[in-house]
Specification:
Elements: H1 4-7, E1 23-25, E2 35-39, H2 51-56, E3 61-64, E4 76-78, H3 82-93, E5 101-107, H4 112-125, E6 130-134, E7 137-140, E8 143-145, H5 155-162, E9 171-176, H6 179-183, E10 191-192, E11 194-197, H7 205-208, H8 211-219, E12 225-226, E13 231-233, H9 246-253, E14 256-259, E15 267-272, E16 279-284, E17 289-294, H10 299-311, H11 318-325, E18 337-341, E19 344-349, H12 354-364, E20 371-375, H13 386-396, E21 399-402, H14 412-420, E22 428-430, H15 434-442, E23 450-454, E24 461-464, E25 467-470, H16 473-480
Parallel strand pairs: 1-2, 2-3, 3-4, 5-9, 5-11, 6-9, 10-12, 11-13, 13-14, 14-15, 19-23, 20-21, 20-23, 21-22
Antiparallel strand pairs: 6-7, 7-8, 15-16, 16-17, 18-19, 24-25
Length: about 475
């Protein structure tokens, strides 16, 4: 089907009148026969550098905001304000109505997957159309759809996902927004009903280079096209507040606060935590006050749940939330996932930076006399956090097994060398094969202690020398223990 008529309102001449347009993309690798190629600024280079590639692959026409100097034999149309029009063009191209979608964005060093996933599932339990897009892929209502693999897709990939969401009702869309996506302005000028910032800890310095750049990236969520000021879980920001610049503090001042201790916060909550059963929470939000009980093992997942409610608080009622709290709260696979084996409990989580590791291990120290830990550090990524991760592991665990975690193109010995630098590694057992490390750790498991496996969570492969070797921590544990679950 020729979709020329759908983009015609944005083309002020007849330059494309003889073209057939069946698809649209800003990535030359995705161009097909009769694609409209949108040459715009990318993460590193402008799309004008790839126009020849697009033509070779069959693009029928091009729009751009910069002059293209290559000689090509397909029509080009220039739009100065292209970035301002991207989302309108995409809504029109896919014949979608902006009024049918309500967008939410969640960022934070830790917890964004769990929080966005929980918000999505609250609305699914209320039988409302909802979409989750993030680390887990894309979930349209209850169906998992594969994505290219980025935590946050580009705006063109996002609309390819949304084109299947014609649910005849308003559709809620929950997006994890990474620091990379914020820096690259990957979501263009998409309008968000509500955004949320959970926390900021040092991460991704291999990309951002400095902590200041990383903090600026996270805080820039407040500058998105937000209908409402960003909600910030301010209790999780206390460590970095003293070091913020005046400009960064201005970013915070534009936001609404979520807090258990700050009496001036618009969104207030209180938790009476019970690790062995139901915890009680009290919410005092602008739209409602509510008391309820929840069954979640880790306290920070209760805070993620409260954050999810804050995110959607303008769209749900206390009665809605009471209905959903009666069922088990769903967590993403590999996020605080508990396996109760005959010999003891195993906790699997995606935590892969010092602070997220500390959050889990510090909490578990309150309830277990001994913690056995299996973890590793990713190859070809931020090397500065490796020794910090091992330090946290040794400070909060009784027995540590250091192993592989997506070595990529880096040698395991190089990763180990960085991790043990400055640490006393005498009590750390180094086993390169992750399955062997998990098997050795399971030999130590009893009813009195707990085995914690960190770093990979839901992932189903190991990235080694460019190959994705099938591997999943949960499956590995169940295989070794012969599926002996209580």
């Amino acid at each position: 089907m020729n979709k020329l008529s759908l983009i015609k309102p944005f083309i002020k001449t007849d330059v494309f009148d003889q073209c057939t347009i069946t698809s649209i993309t800003d990535d030359s690798r995705d161009v097909q026969i009769n694609s409209l190629f949108v040459a715009r600024q990318g993460a590193g280079m402008h799309g004008k550098e790839f126009v020849k590639d697009a033509v070779k692959k069959g693009a029928s026409c091009v729009i751009s905001d910069q002059i293209i100097h290559h000689e090509i034999d397909i029509p080009i149309y220039y739009i100065d304000e292209l970035e301002d029009l991207i989302t309108k063009i995409l809504f029109s191209f896919y014949n979608l109505s902006e009024s049918d979608f309500i967008f939410f964005g969640v960022t934070g060093t830790n917890g964004k997957t769990t929080t966005a996933f929980m918000a999505h599932n609250i609305l699914r339990e209320l039988q409302r159309p909802s979409v989750y897009v993030g680390t887990l892929g894309a979930i349209l209502n209850d169906d998992l759809v594969e994505t290219k693999g980025n935590t946050t897709p580009g705006i063109f990939e996002l609309f390819k996902i949304l084109k299947d969401c014609k649910f005849q009702q308003k559709t809620y869309v929950f997006l994890e927004i990474s620091s990379h996506a914020l820096t690259q302005k990957r979501l263009s000028n998409l309008v968000f009903s509500q955004t949320l910032l959970l926390n900021i800890q040092s991460d991704h310095l291999d990309y951002h280079k400095t902590e200041t750049n990383y903090i600026n990236a996270k805080l820039s969520i407040t500058d998105l096209n937000n209908k409402n000021p960003t909600i910030i879980l301010i209790d999780q920001m206390q460590d970095i507040l003293p070091s913020l610049s005046d400009d960064q503090k201005k970013q915070l001042s534009k936001s609404r606060l979520l807090s258990a201790v700050n009496l001036s916060a618009e969104f207030k909550y209180f938790i009476q935590y019970n690790p062995e059963g139901h915890s009680k929470i009290s919410l005092n939000f602008p739209n409602f006050s509510l008391e309820m009980s929840v069954l979640l093992f880790l306290k920070f997942n209760i805070e993620n749940y409260i954050s999810a409610i804050a995110l959607i608080s303008e769209h749900v009622s206390p009665n809605d939330l009471k209905k959903t709290s009666k069922t088990a709260i769903k967590l993403p696979k590999g996020r605080g996932e508990i396996l109760s084996l005959k010999q003891g409990k195993v906790l699997i989580d995606f935590a892969h930076d010092p602070q997220s590791m500390k959050n889990i291990l510090f909490e578990l120290n309150n309830y277990y006399v001994e913690i056995i830990l299996v973890f590793g550090c990713g190859g070809d990524r931020d090397k500065s956090k490796r020794s910090k991760m091992l330090q946290v592991a040794q400070n909060f665990s009784n027995k540590v097994f250091f192993t592989s975690d997506n070595n990529r193109y880096e040698s395991f010995s190089s990763i180990v060398s960085d991790a043990i630098n400055g640490n006393n590694h005498m009590d750390t057992e180094i086993i390169e094969d992750r399955q062997e490390a998990i098997a050795a750790a399971l030999q130590c498991l009893t009813k009195e202690n707990i085995l914690v496996i960190l770093g990979k969570g839901h992932e189903t492969f190991m990235d080694i020398l460019g190959s994705k070797v099938p591997f999943n921590d949960r499956d590995c544990v169940l295989k070794i223990s012969a599926n002996e679950i209580n």
